[in-house]
From TrEMBL:
CDD domains: GT20_TPS, HAD_TPP. One of its GO terms (biological process) is trehalose biosynthetic process. InterPro entries: Glyco_trans_20, HAD-like_sf, HAD-SF_hydro_IIB, HAD_sf, Trehalose_PPase. This is Bifunctional alpha,alpha-trehalose-phosphate synthase (UDP-forming)/trehalose-phosphatase. It comes from Gaoshiqia sediminis.
Length: 735
């Protein structure tokens, strides 16, 4: 059975070197829970760092760790202190983390970090490659391992790779700041499926793929030279049953059974019936908006004095990355703000902010969730934010109000929360006021809907949806690859071709014989192409026809010396070798004065675009336009042309970054068939790359060898990846 493996920076276990040797304890975090159900079920391994630097360990200790991990189906990547400093603290947490959360000012552009990041990603990939077999699936997690998918794909293309990013993917304008942006994005593209928490991150990613690498994105698929892959949004869920179950259990405990924290919380509420508790839980991180939250709470107490002595903000801040300068500064800022608020509004019997700077056991966490009337979640940027979901799951009596930042990924699933902009203190203060005054009935209505949604899409559903996505892309890839010309197919085709006595060869030009250029006039044939054509022409059994959308003059100038026929302007003109140009059918062009001004208007509004005028068609080129604007305008243009097209019997052809308007009824298929009429061929070969060639593939007799360049859907019988593959095939045919 093919297996499913996981790779993440940390293994889902904690390891302690105690008096009894190495102790391994499984972690209880959300990702660990969600993934454990998968990799164990599918007989896979989890690859990651053990959490202990290897340079403090003896060889025996390293072996002991490896041995202990076998029982957990885990494989350790051993990292030294220096590697952790440079790859993890350095590149991951001092470059990618701030940048992807829009804190570009915090980036430390240290080239050593980059070198270490490559080296350590390679270590992870190598460890994975040791256990991967063709047909296996591997799911790579998060921003520490962006290069791993490409590293694995390069060595083992038969492995299906998923990648999930747990933090936001920033807009292109921010992502482009990085010197290593192309390498990172190429690294991710090694995956077959790339998952994000939200559609916004997905579209930012597509935008970077288009702009940095020029790949075409259609719907959620990315077409690369020789592969097609997919990206999609999979909002991560929590282990809902675990949180709601524990909350139920906690609520049913007797006073004696309750923890000290829980008893203290209950005592607080007994003090007065008006007492309310607002909860805030995060790692100490500048992305979480902790100072904003405190400022909002301060303003609330200032503006609504009736709530002083009655409302407490309980703030759990879990220490994180404490050695980094920005985190130290943040810690001082938070300490100061808490002191200021408590000093300003506190008294003998009232402390406005209860501040815990540590982490608490799971049971305490649940007690906090279930005792708090309001959850205040105000990140300035957050990939998802699971705390928000955990609060919802823990509200067994269905009361409680969620105040949520619009900058957290989770907001997409929580329309019933009170949504705030975390940079607007006044809005936070107002939201707290609204939350505290919300009638119980309304709280229940909102909470019910939230609970329904969050419980349905839990962490198990998330993981299984992602795996379904992987299956889907595998099927798409299979379909796209089905028609590919493999070595044995190539051998058969060449054999069939060689056996024939009279062969008609139709070759499209751009995208088939030569690659695309920003300037269409720069695509003249190179020496290799001239030689290839000569080889084909020399064989008297061959009749070669170049069939293109180009104009007469250009193709005649470029290929006039060859013994080939030319069909141009998608079938308007034919020039048999040695004869004059003739029009294949009677066509008029009295529609041009109507269409030209429309195209001109689009040229004026879209920098980088231009019009090419052919005898019987007008072409709008947008290859040089800024890619997204180009696509948008192309859609607008098609819309605008629609009525004209049907009223004037015109045809709109969409090529590769071109929109062409021409007289209707004329196309490459019709032209090729006219050419073949009254002639006897026992082999017909047609190769083309775009939409306009599909006419030819459809019209030619079924016995024809039709070949599409590129991986898109096609009516052709076969596919090849690129211009290079076409040339290699033609070479074999000419030999
Ligand atoms: C990253 C992304 C994305 C917190 N304090 C304690 C404690 N926690 C647990 C919470 C929650 C987790 O930590 C925090 O998860 P978040 O999602 O809120 O935030 P990040 O750690 O920044 O996670 C984030 C996530 O990845 C998943 O993709 O949502 O956007 O930044 O589960 O319960 N747990 C215990 N004691 C504590 O004191 N036991």
């Amino acid at each position: 059975m093919s297996k499913i493996h996981i790779v993440s920076n940390r293994l889902p276990v904690s390891i302690e070197n105690g008096p009894q040797g190495m102790q391994v304890t499984p972690s209880v975090g959300g990702l660990a829970t969600g993934m454990r159900s998968i990799y164990k079920e599918y007989g896979g391994q989890w690859i990651g760092w053990s959490g202990i630097a290897s340079d403090g360990l003896s060889e025996q200790e390293v072996e002991a760790i490896d041995e202990k991990l076998v029982d957990e189906n885990c494989v350790a990547v051993h990292l030294s202190n220096e590697e952790i400093n440079l790859y993890y603290e350095g590149f991951s947490n001092n470059i990618i983390w701030p940048l992807f959360h829009y804190f570009a000012q915090f980036i430390d552009y240290n080239p050593d970090y980059w070198e270490a990041y490559i080296k350590v990603n390679r270590k992870f990939a190598d460890k994975a490659l040791e256990i991967l077999e063709d047909g296996d699936t591997i799911w790579v997690h998060d921003y520490q391992l962006l290069l791993v998918p490409e590293m694995i794909k390069a060595e083992k293309p038969g492995v299906t790779i998923g990648f999930f990013l747990h933090i936001p993917f920033p807009s292109f304008e921010v992502f482009r700041i990085l010197p290593w942006r192309k390498e990172l994005i190429k690294g991710m593209l090694g995956a077959d499926l790339i998952g994000f928490h939200t559609y916004d991150y997905e579209r930012h990613f597509f935008s970077s793929v288009r702009r940095l690498l020029g790949y075409e994105v259609s719907f959620n698929q990315i077409h690369m030279e020789d592969r097609i892959i997919m990206a999609d949004a999979f909002p991560m869920g929590i282990d809902y049953a675990k949180f709601s179950g524990k909350a139920k259990e906690v609520s049913q405990k007797s006073l004696q059974e309750k923890s000290e924290l829980h008893r203290e919380l209950e005592k607080y509420f007994l003090g007065s019936p008006d007492r309310k508790l607002i909860l805030s839980i995060d790692r100490l991180d500048y992305t979480k908006g902790i100072p904003n939250r405190l400022r909002g709470f301060e303003l609330f107490l200032e503006r609504f004095p009736q709530f002083r002595n009655k409302v407490t903000l309980i703030m759990l801040v879990v220490p994180s990355r404490a050695a980094v300068e920005q985190y130290k500064l943040l810690k001082s800022e938070v300490d100061e703000l808490v002191g200021k608020i408590n000093g300003r509004f506190g008294g003998i019997n009232y402390t406005p902010v209860w501040y815990f700077y540590r982490s608490l056991p799971f049971d305490n966490l649940i007690e906090l969730y279930s005792s708090s009337d309001v959850a205040l979640v105000t990140p300035v940027r957050d990939g998802m934010n699971l705390v928000a979901k955990e609060y919802i799951a823990s509200r067994v009596n269905q009361t409680g109000v969620m105040i949520l930042s619009e900058m957290a990924g989770v907001v997409k699933e929580m329309g019933e929360a009170i949504i705030i902009n975390p940079n607007n203190d006044a809005e936070i203060a107002e939201a707290i006021y609204q939350a505290l005054n919300m009638p119980l009935e309304e709280q229940r209505e909102r909470m019910k809907l939230l609970q329904q949604r969050i419980s349905r899409y839990d962490v198990f559903k998330w993981a299984s949806e992602f795996l379904k996505g992987l299956k889907k892309i595998e099927a798409i890839q299979q379909k796209f690859l089905a028609k590919r010309i493999t070595n044995s197919v190539k051998k058969d085709l060449v054999g069939q071709f060689k056996k024939a006595k009279r062969r008609a060869i139709f070759l499209d030009y751009d995208g088939t014989l030569v690659g695309f250029h920003n300037d269409p006039q720069a695509a003249s044939p190179d020496q290799e192409l001239h030689k290839l054509l000569v080889k084909l022409e020399e064989d008297k059994k061959n009749t070669v026809t170049i069939i293109s959308g180009r104009d007469r003059d250009t193709l005649e100038r470029w290929l006039g010396d060859h013994h080939v026929n030319l069909i141009v302007e998608h079938g308007v003109w034919l020039k048999n070798y040695g004869s004059e140009w003739q029009m294949i059918d009677n066509i008029n062009s009295n529609w041009k004065p109507i269409i030209r001004p429309i195209l001109e208007n689009f040229v004026d509004r879209t920098p980088g675009t231009f019009i090419e005028e052919k005898n019987y068609s007008l072409v709008w080129h947008y290859r040089k336009a800024e890619p997204e604007q180009g696509e948008l305008r192309a859609n607008d243009l098609k819309d605008e042309l629609r009525d004209w097209i049907s009223n004037h019997n015109l045809e709109l052809m969409e090529g590769n970054k071109v929109i062409e308007v021409k007289a209707g009824g004329i196309n490459k298929g019709m032209a090729a068939m006219r050419f073949l009429k009254d002639q006897q061929f026992d082999c017909i070969l047609a190769i083309g790359d775009d939409w306009t060639d599909e006419y030819m593939f459809r019209e030619l007799p079924e016995s024809a060898i039709t070949i599409k360049v590129g991986l898109k859907n096609t009516a052709a019988a076969y596919k090849v990846e690129s211009v290079n593959s076409v040339r290699s095939l033609l070479k074999s045919l000419g030999e």
